[in-house]
Amino acid sequence: MDIQLFQTFLLVAKLGSITQTAEQLNFTQPTVSAQINTLEKHFNVLLFERVRKKLYITEAGREMVVYAEKMLNLYREIKETMNSHAIDNNRIIIASSTQLINYLLPDILRNFHDNNPNNYVSVEICRNTKAVEKGLLDNTFDIGIVHDQIASDHLKYIEILQEELIWVGHNELIKNDHIDHFTDYSIIQFRFGSDMRRKVEEAIKGHKYRQMIEYSDAEAILRAVADKLGVALLPQIMVQSFLDQGIFVKLTHTEPIKCPISVVIHKNKNITPSHKSFLNSAFSYAQKEQLLNKLI
User: Fold this and answer.
1) 214: Cβ contacts below 8 Å, ≥ 6 apart
2) Are residues 109 and 56 in the same domain?
3) Strand partners of residue 120
């Protein structure tokens, strides 16, 4: 039933006049009368009585006022809630499998916001690729950016970058010891379960080393390297500024490790213009625009 019928009814009940109601709503009098008649027929009651050209509300009409007001208040609440979801259509939730991917995101987000100034992006840092997968599968996240391979057949992904992981240590630590291999230092490491932890474990497999110091986040590892606690295997993009300033040095007797970075979405995801624009920014950053159509 049209909500306007109840809005008209309440105004007639308030003003006690079909004529004044029609004037306020910019309706004709027959239109207002027809709307009241529709309600009366639907509920099989008389809502108003006319006595000597004056309109009186009936007992049924007074009870209808109570329910009509509740109904309109509920309608306003529904409208406000739905409007908030309409705003959410411009919101994108990006899931990253490591904090290190954040070093890639600023340029991507800058390009995206230049083209979509009214959009809102939320970045969720996950423990590992499995956590990103789970969020994409239950629609918690819109787009994932990961270091590892995707296991679920319900998701599709495309590699957009190959990031180099390099061993680095503080300049003074390396120069003082005159040793240039990670096995001669404490290894500063991510906690067990993260994607980067697995990368480091692959690199040190079969080697003996002094000890391992674990941290839960990338910034803490950077601080530990800067405090000369040991060496770490980190993405070059993350440590490049330290290398440029001469604070960190690269261990030259170790081979860099290639670390793929992929964009992931659900196969059945409804791709909005905002999603497509973000993906376009990511693929443009990687200079692989031609691969975007394979993903969406």
Assistant:
1) 189, 190, 191, 192
2) no
3) 91
Closest by CA position to 296, among listed 88, 137, 113, 155: 155
CA 190 – CA 195 distance, rounded (Å) = 9
> Quick check: 119 and 90 in contact, CB under 8 A?
yes
What does the mean pLDDT of the chain come to? 86
**Domain shared by 82 and 17, yes or no:** yes
In this structure, are 81 and 116 located in the same domain? no
How many structural domains are present in the chain? 3
What's the DSSP call for residue 186? P
Residue (of 30, 32, 26) closest to 12 by Cα position: 32
Range with the largest mean pLDDT of 38-52, 77-91, 176-190: 38-52
Our measurement of the distance from residue 220's CA atom to the centroid of its chain's CA atoms, rounded to an integer in Å, reads 25
Specify the amino acid at residue 270: N
**Residue whose C-alpha is closest to residue 209's, from 236, 176, 231:** 231
Q: What is the dihedral of CA 249, 108, 148, 293, to 10 degrees?
A: -140
Q: In terms of domains, do 167 and 99 share one? A: no
The CATH number of the domain holding residue 116 is: 3.40.190.10
Instruction: Provide the H-helix boundaries in 138-217.
Output: 171-177, 195-204
Mean pLDDT of 90-111: 83
Q: Residue 105's domain spans which residues? A: 91-161+260-295
Out of 88, 103, 121, pick the residue that ends a domain: 88
Q: CA dihedral defined by 88, 150, 194, 160, rounded to 10 degrees?
A: -80
- Per-residue pLDDT of 246-294, as tens digits, reads 999 988 777 778 888 899 999 998 888 888 889 888 888 888 777 777 7
